Structure formats: C-alpha cells, structure tokens
Inverse folding.
C-alpha cells in the first residue's frame, strides 16, 4: 500500500502540532509497511504572506492529487484587518468547498484519564460523553449570498442561509450511516420554529430516515435547547446532525465538555472517502512557537484518517490507545489547567491527592505517543 498526503501546516501552532501528527503517521506507515509520500503546501496566513492569496492554486492541485489532507490551523491577529476575501479563514472555507468536503465529523468523548478535566459536575460527567457531531460543511450561511450595502442611509450587512434538498439528504445519510455503527440514535438540530431553511432541513432528514433507515431512532431538537441539553445531560446524545453554523457552535461546546478544546479531532469527507483531517481548535497565536501546544487533537485526526480514508481501523484504535496512555503520564499545560479549574480537580487537590501526571511540551507528548504506539503495534 502506498499513500500520498498533502500537508497544510497553516498558521500559529499549526506547524508544531502537525509535526507531532506526522511523527505518528510515519510510525504507523513504517510498522504497517505503507509507502508514504508527503507534499507540503501553503494555506491561510502563511499563504497570504508568500503568495498574496489564502488558497493558492498549487495547494488545491496538490490536495486533489492526494489520498488525504492533514491540516493544522489557520488565522491570527496579523491578518485580521485584511478584507474578508483574502483572510486566512477564506482559504479554509475555500479548500473545503473546492474539495467537495460536505460532511464534517467531530467526535467528542471523555477519555478515561481526563474524567477530572470536564467542567461538568462529576455526577453528569460520570454518565459519560460520547457523541458525534455531523456538521454540514459546504452549504448554509457560510456559503450563501452576502454583502454590506447602504439601506435608507445606513450600512446594512446580510448573509443568506439556504439549504437545498440534495445537500440535506447527503449529510443525513452520513449521520445515519455513522449512527448505524454506533448507538443508532440521531438528533437533528435546527431552528425549525423560526427558519424556513431549518424546516426543510428537518423534513428532509425525517424523510431520509423513514425511507432508508427504519432502524435508527430520530429525534428533533431546536438549537437553543440542544446547547442547553449538552451541558445538562450530554449522555443522551449519540449522533447530532446539523447545518454548518449550528455545527460550528455545538462542536466547540461539545469539545469543552471533554476537558479541553485541544482534544477534538475532525474529519471532513467528500463523496468518495477522500478526506481532510484537522483539529477543531484554532491556531492559538498566543502560545504559538513556545512548544506548549497540545498536539493530541491533530494526532487523533490522523487516527480518523486511518479509519475513514484508508480503512485501517486497527491502526486508528492503536493511535487512540497510545493517546490515552500518554494522558496517564504527561500532559500539556492546557490539560493541567483544565483539571485545576474543574470541580473534580479542585476537590482532589483540596484533599491532597498526589499528582501523578507531569507537565510536558508539544514535542515530548508527540514522542511519548509514538513510543506507546510502537509498544502496542510491535509485538
Ligand atoms: C472550525 C472553525 C472555522 C469554521 C473557521 C476558522 C472558519 O471555527 O473549523 O470550526 O467556522 O468552520
Ligand atoms: Mg469552529
């Protein structure tokens, strides 16, 4: 087997975290005897600095010639004052759209070693968080008509939120297929009590369920209620299917339930199994270049790549297991801070529980995961 990956480090902590994820990918390829070809390309602020545009044609061409894309993060204050069509984020939205990556899978679960990190009350966290946000990624308000114009003597900005049936049907199928491999429960999240696009979203998801997935339990929930239920009773969720904007918001909330936004990977998939893999967090310019960024979300994105694009679930599981192992021994500062902030962490501190994990940097965590992976895979 031979695979070709386009690597987009992006901005801020991007290069640091992608570096660790590549160590893990190389280890898997070495052990699995998989030929690995890497092609590094520019995206976001880094691309603006070098070429003047956030998404160079060469980057698109390389991605299209690859089996999968590994991405760090884009954006930073340096590019914040640029006009909206040449901002780093435009590069990210552009690559998703150019590659037809309409389905964004964002799994959120509490790793056993991080149980004390969740900001949830211990009683709620104990019931577990293990959910999958399936976010529509190439439609809705992110890609509708937009503008800012003079109306009655003042500026008026607008963004159109539009969903067509075929866009809803295909994301619904991804959600139902995912649910079939999980607990067979899907919550459709929308604002159908107010928005027309949401009404169509809800009806279409229900039709796909009735016609094609009779064995899946489908529940509807308004976005405001869903964001409340996520903190109040997250164990009720299995798969959440929703539009682009609501999915963006709910996935950050879901990430925080697990203890740190630095833990959540994502897969953005097209129709053919091709995928782009990236952490859901941003480029964290405040800690960039200091070697303290948490690489685990990017490493876990490699696990998603192995599972979804390359059909290697056993290697994906090994990477996840190696991550869990690393958490028992060493953690980046974000995870240690989250633990101090959480109620459970506060209580164990107050009662003088001995600290068993040590603080480590980005590189050390990457090395540790690689070492654990070798132990798991080389027997
Ligand atoms: C995400 C990010 C992006 C989004 C931004 C950077 C454009 O927040 O991947 O969740 O809104 O999709
Ligand atoms: Mg987001």
């Amino acid at each position: 087997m031979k695979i070709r990956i386009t690597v987009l480090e992006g901005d801020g902590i991007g290069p640091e975290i992608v570096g660790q994820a590549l160590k893990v990918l190389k280890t898997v390829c070495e052990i699995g005897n998989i030929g690995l070809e890497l092609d590094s390309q520019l995206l976001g602020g880094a691309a603006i600095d070098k070429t003047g545009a956030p998404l160079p044609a060469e980057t698109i061409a390389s991605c299209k010639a690859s089996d999968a894309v590994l991405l760090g993060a884009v954006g930073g204050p340096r590019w914040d004052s640029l006009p909206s069509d040449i901002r780093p984020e435009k590069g990210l939205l552009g690559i998703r759209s150019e590659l037809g990556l309409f389905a964004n899978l964002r799994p959120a679960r509490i790793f056993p070693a991080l149980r004390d990190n969740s900001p949830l009350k211990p009683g709620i966290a104990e019931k577990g968080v293990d959910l999958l946000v399936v976010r529509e990624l190439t439609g809705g308000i992110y890609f509708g008509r937009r503008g800012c114009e003079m109306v009655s003597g003042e500026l008026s900005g607008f963004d159109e939120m539009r969903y067509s049936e075929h866009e809803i049907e295909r994301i619904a199928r991804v959600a139902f297929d995912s649910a079939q491999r999980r607990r067979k429960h899907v919550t459709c999240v929308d604002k159908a009590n107010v928005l027309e696009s949401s009404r169509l979203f809800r009806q279409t998801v229900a039709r796909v369920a009735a016609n094609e997935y009779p064995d899946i339990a489908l529940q509807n929930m308004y976005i405001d209620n869903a964001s409340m239920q996520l903190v109040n009773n997250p164990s009720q969720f299995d798969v959440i299917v929703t539009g682009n904007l609501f999915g963006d918001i709910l996935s950050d909330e879901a990430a925080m339930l697990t203890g740190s936004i630095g833990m959540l990977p994502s897969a953005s998939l097209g129709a053919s199994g091709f995928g782009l893999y990236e952490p859901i967090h941003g480029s964290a310019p405040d800690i960039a270049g200091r070697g303290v960024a948490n690489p685990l979300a990017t490493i876990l994105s490699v696990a998603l790549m192995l599972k979804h694009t390359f059909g290697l679930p056993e290697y994906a599981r090994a990477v996840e297991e190696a991550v869990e192992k690393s958490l028992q021994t060493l953690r980046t500062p974000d995870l240690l801070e989250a633990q101090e902030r959480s109620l459970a962490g506060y209580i164990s501190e107050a009662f003088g529980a001995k600290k068993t994990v040590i603080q480590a940097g980005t590189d050390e965590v990457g090395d540790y995961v690689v070492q654990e992976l070798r132990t798991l895979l080389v027997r």
Summary: The first strand starts at residue 2 and ends at 10. The mean pLDDT is 95. The chain has 14 helices and 14 strands. The pocket of 3-isopropylmalic acid (ligand 1) is lined by residues 75, 89, 92-93, 248, 280 (CB under 6 Å).
